Amino acid sequence: MGASFNNSVMSTLPVDIAEFPSFLPLRRFSTEKYLQMVDSGFLGPSDKVELIAGVVVETSPSGIPHNQFLIQIVDLFAAVLKDCQVAIQATLPLDDGNVFHPDFMLLRRKPEGYKLKYPRPEDVLLVIEAASSSLRRDREIKLPVYAAAGIPEYWITDLEKELVIVHRQPEGSQYQVVEIAQKDEILSPLAAPQFSLKAGKLFE
């Protein structure tokens, strides 16, 4: 009888795949194939993975500071829900080979919502990633993908230093405007200029 497999035994790789032995070729997945695994239940929320450069990669587990950040950010952005929609760790296909699950997305409000289709890059107004152990991944791996996909605004929140790195104006695989905000400095998303908050409120 042949062996059977389920998502509890699926292997994943750390993000630093550059040092993976060349004599063990990687199996790369297309975005379509990865989403099929998600939609079929083969990959579920408990797997804590993303598709990066075609490779299924483990993400960092959420600790108490990360959980508190997600709770806090939903409360803070409640004021924009009339005009936008908020998604927490939702699936975002960016291109062929990259499917991320950002901590926070501000999405265009659509009459049909997102019942039948995943959000696309053109639907995304703002992405926020909460970073501690994942800071290098969010800056070096995810940032170029977000920029190349045309995500107009990307915030990286450093949970340890309690500061926000704001990226705007994507061009190629980089952002042309990069600013740092902390403590009482004011943040206001490009998509919701009427809304503002002190950077330090994100870390309370």
Protein architecture, described:
This protein has helices at residues 31-39, 64-76, 135-148, and strands at 49-52, 55-58, 84-88, 92-95, 98-100, 104-108, 124-131, 153-158, 163-171, 174-182, 186-187, 197-198. The chain has 204 residues and is an alpha+beta fold. It folds into two domains: 7-58, no CATH class; 64-203, tt1808, chain A (Alpha-Beta Complex), CATH 3.90.1570. Strands 3-6-7-8-9-10 form a six-stranded mixed sheet. β4 (92-95) and β5 form a beta hairpin.
Secondary structure layout:
Layout: H1 31-39, E1 49-52, E2 55-58, H2 64-76, E3 84-88, E4 92-95, E5 98-100, E6 104-108, E7 124-131, H3 135-148, E8 153-158, E9 163-171, E10 174-182, E11 186-187, E12 197-198
Parallel strand pairs: 7-8
Antiparallel strand pairs: 1-2, 3-6, 4-5, 6-7, 8-9, 9-10, 11-12
The CATH homologous superfamily of the largest domain? tt1808, chain A
Global mean pLDDT: 88
Structural class: alpha+beta
Distance between the termini: 55 Å
Spans with pLDDT under 50 lasting ≥5 residues?
A: 1-17
CATH architecture of the largest domain: Alpha-Beta Complex
Instruction: Count the E strands.
Output: 12
CATH class of the largest domain: Alpha Beta
| Count of DSSP-assigned helices | 3
Helix proportion? 10-25%
Radius of gyration: 18 Å
Write down the domain tally: 2
Note the overall shape. globular
Physical arrangement of strands within the biggest beta sheet:
3-6-7-8-9-10
> What letter string, H or E per element, gives the SSE order?
HEEHEEEEEHEEEEE
Percent strand: 25-35%
Major sheet details: 6 strands, mixed
* Topology-level CATH name of the largest domain: tt1808, chain A
